[in-house]
Amino acid sequence: MRRIWAVAMKEKYGANERSQKLKYHIQTSGRSLHAQEIQFNDIRTTLQALIAIYDNCNSLHTNVFDEAITTPTEDSVRRAMAIQLIINREWGLAKNENPSQGAFIIEELTELLEEAVLTEFERIAERGGVLGAMETGYQRGRIQDESMHYEMLKHTGELPIIGVNTFRNPHGEVVQDKLELARSTDEEKQSQLKRLEDFHQRHAKESPAMLKRLQKAVIENNNVFEVLMDAVRVCSLGQITNALFEVGGQYRRNM
Questions:
Q1: Other CB atoms closer than 10 Å to residue 111's CB: what's the count?
Q2: CB 24 within 8 Å of CB 17
């Protein structure tokens, strides 16, 4: 991603050196979480986290093993956090810079991935850019096609997934048809609403001017993110969203 970002920013947008440097966040693969043999999900997440840390990602989110079926519990969240802690505090190789770069397979896969992504950029550009492609449903269609292809490989067994379509445990737990999902209590909901109301009251004098400043940045095509960093100190997410809707409208995809 750093290579792709640098190439795109330099060659397409003529960005300066600082803008060519990418900071990025990694989240482990939700698609790799399965309800069957659910405890295996932590193993998959650990390996994904290891790759992300080896690549010096700037921040990392490790998925919780039971996200495949429900809202995470406190215990499962602690396990997901432990994955990062163990890699960072106990796994010595993670303390070295770029430990996996330089091997032929890494270099070759990187070249192929970069070529594929930059080719996709061209396909989107041919359709009028990101917004033009959205109008025809191009991105959504590509995502759906990829998802269907992945599910087909899973069901045919061409893509082996341990405990799901291969090496299944004959004595394993049955996947539940109905699950009791975690929901906020009414007390928790009211507490959040009260905090939101208090926040609005504390910043009632500052938020209108800040929202106007945000809208002005959008209209004049200035650095919106810079203004957002100030806006979130005195404006709620709802206020910011409504302000942006007023100047930019709300996206509605074509059916």
A1: 11
A2: no
CA dihedral (227, 231, 237, 238) in degrees, to 10, reads -100
Helix, strand, or coil here: 88?
A: helix
Q: Is 26 helix (H, G, I), strand (E, B) or coil?
A: strand
What gap in Å lies between CA 61 and CA 52, rounded to an integer? 10
Reported pTM: 0.70
Which of 207, 247, 248, 202 has the alpha carbon at shortest distance from 230?
207
- What is the CB neighbour count within 10 angstroms for residue 80? 22
Task: List the helix and strand counts (H, then E) for the chain.
Answer: 10, 2
CB atoms within 10 A of CB 6: 16
What spatial distance separates the first Cα and last Cα of the chain, rounded to whole Å? 32
Our CA dihedral for 109, 111, 117, 120, rounded to 10 degrees, sits at -110
CB 33: neighbour CB atoms within 10 A?
A: 20
Helix or strand or coil: residue 54?
helix
Distance in angstroms (rounded) separating the CA atoms of residues 250 and 241: 10
Rounded CA-CA distance 45/54 in Å is 14
pLDDT tens by residue, the chain, 255 residues: 898 999 999 998 999 999 999 999 999 999 899 988 899 999 999 999 999 988 889 999 999 999 888 888 889 999 999 999 999 888 888 777 777 777 888 889 889 999 999 999 999 999 999 989 998 899 999 999 999 999 999 999 999 999 889 998 888 776 666 767 777 889 999 999 999 999 999 999 999 999 999 999 999 999 999 999 999 999 999 999 999 999 988 766 655
